[in-house]
């Protein structure tokens, strides 16, 4: 099967799979409410935790972990084994492509009026399946910044910046894979998308009205 069909399958499948928003589904099943009507109106893990507590948040986390990993694994298996295509002798590129479009589906879900979450958790879970070592470094940046500032948004933005920085370092000097430039460009696109989705948080940080982790939502 040719490359164009492989790319089309990865893009379409990942976007539609990503459009299955875990936060919306979990809150409707467990609480019979739409998470987008509460808190920050964001259909993401942080808002679920703040509004409905640890139980629904844990369920959302598990569903998002599965969604991100499954999107990458399924696309890599189908494209490299079913279609016989491997980019740059390295299937990581298909993983990054699947990761980017599952994020787009999560952020702009076709099933929910194109209004979803920010995509941070999905980016992390797809990276677990694509490049675990880069994931460890990026999550470490997030954890350190969160512990220092108490702002989830600042940790997420810093991790998004670190993601494409660590990608070529890990792939060039540690795992020594192929297609490093293409993979880094995809990692950069994912990082920029995360930062773009944090525009309201950046404004609140500048105004001093952003919520700190563990605090109640400010009026």
Shape: globular
Query: What is the mean pLDDT?
Result: 88
Please report the total strand number as a whole number.
0
Low-confidence stretches: none
Observed structural traits:
219 residues, mainly alpha
Protein architecture, described:
The chain is an all-alpha fold and 219 residues long. Helix content is 71%, strand content 0%. The protein has ten helices and no strands. It has helices at 3-18, 22-30, 45-52, 54-82, 92-107, 120-130, 132-149, 152-173, 180-197, 199-207. Helix 4 (54-82) packs across helix 5 and helix 5 packs antiparallel against helix 6 (120-130). The longest helix is centred in the N-terminal third of the chain and has 29 residues, at 54-82. The model has no long low-confidence stretch (mean pLDDT 88).
List the helices and strands and how they pair.
Blueprint: H1 3-18, H2 22-30, H3 45-52, H4 54-82, H5 92-107, H6 120-130, H7 132-149, H8 152-173, H9 180-197, H10 199-207
Helix pairs in contact: 1-4, 1-5, 2-4, 3-4, 4-5, 4-6, 5-6, 5-9, 6-7, 7-8, 8-9
Condensed summary:
The chain is 71% helix and 0% strand.
């Amino acid at each position: 099967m040719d490359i164009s069909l492989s790319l089309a399958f990865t893009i379409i499948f990942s976007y539609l799979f990503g459009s299955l928003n875990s936060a919306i589904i979990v809150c409707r099943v467990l609480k019979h409410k739409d998470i987008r009507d509460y808190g920050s109106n964001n259909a993401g893990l942080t808002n679920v935790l703040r509004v409905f507590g640890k139980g629904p948040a844990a369920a959302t986390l598990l569903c998002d972990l599965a969604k991100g990993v499954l999107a990458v694994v399924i696309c890599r298996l189908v494209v490299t084994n079913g279609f016989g295509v491997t980019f740059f002798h390295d299937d990581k590129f298909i993983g990054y492509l699947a990761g980017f479009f599952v994020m787009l589906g999560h952020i702009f879900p076709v099933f929910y009026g194109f209004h979803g979450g920010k995509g941070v958790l999905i980016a992390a879970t797809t990276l677990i399946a694509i490049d675990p070592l880069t994931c460890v470094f990026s999550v470490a940046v997030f954890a350190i910044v969160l512990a220092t500032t108490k702002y989830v948004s600042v940790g997420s933005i810093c991790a998004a910046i670190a993601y494409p920085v660590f990608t070529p370092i890990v792939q060039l000097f540690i795992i020594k894979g192929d297609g490093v430039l293409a993979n880094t460009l995809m990692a950069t696109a994912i990082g920029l998308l995360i930062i773009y989705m944090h525009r309201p948080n950046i404004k609140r940080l500048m105004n001093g009205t952003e919520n700190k982790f563990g605090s109640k939502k400010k009026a």
